[in-house]
């Protein structure tokens, strides 16, 4: 997904999307600029200047692509058709305007990302040859509580 225009959109979106994309997306792809008009309006960010009527466009990730990149999981709760959400990284709606959304990538952002990325979610049982989850995705409610502003709470969120 990140090797084409969607990777450029992830870089341009910033935050965790940017950080997940930088090892995969080439600088040349980013420097080429937007891919142009899309038949899907969700794939474009359009800015219109009312004074001149000029429009500028850029690539944008769809909500579904954002959820895929951050590892959103939907699970039945056992309470009828109710679903619980969990993810490997905080969703945009949780992270945006939170206490740790500084508007740019910081040392704290990188430390948190590194902690979350370094915890191996899967381990291989060498005897049985089976893969087992050693860490679960974090519930959205816990992400919300733990993105209110303290580095300690972020470490607790993934640990």
Keywords:
159 residues, alpha+beta, 2 domains, single chain, 8 helices, 17% strand, three-stranded antiparallel sheet
Describe this structure in words.
The protein is of the alpha+beta class and about 160 residues long. The protein folds into 2 domains: about 5-65, no CATH class; about 90-159, no CATH class. Helix content is about 35%, strand content about 15%. The chain contains 8 helices and 7 strands, in the order H-H-H-E-E-H-E-E-H-H-E-E-E-H-H. It has a 3-stranded antiparallel sheet. Helix 1 packs across helix 2, helix 6 (about 105-120) runs parallel beside helix 8 (about 150-159) and helix 7 (about 140-145) runs antiparallel to helix 8. It is globular. It starts with a helix and ends with a helix.
Topology:
Layout: H1 5-13, H2 15-21, H3 27-31, E1 44-48, E2 55-59, H4 63-69, E3 73-76, E4 83-87, H5 92-95, H6 107-118, E5 122-124, E6 131-133, E7 138-139, H7 140-146, H8 151-158
Antiparallel strand pairs: 1-2, 3-4, 4-7, 5-6
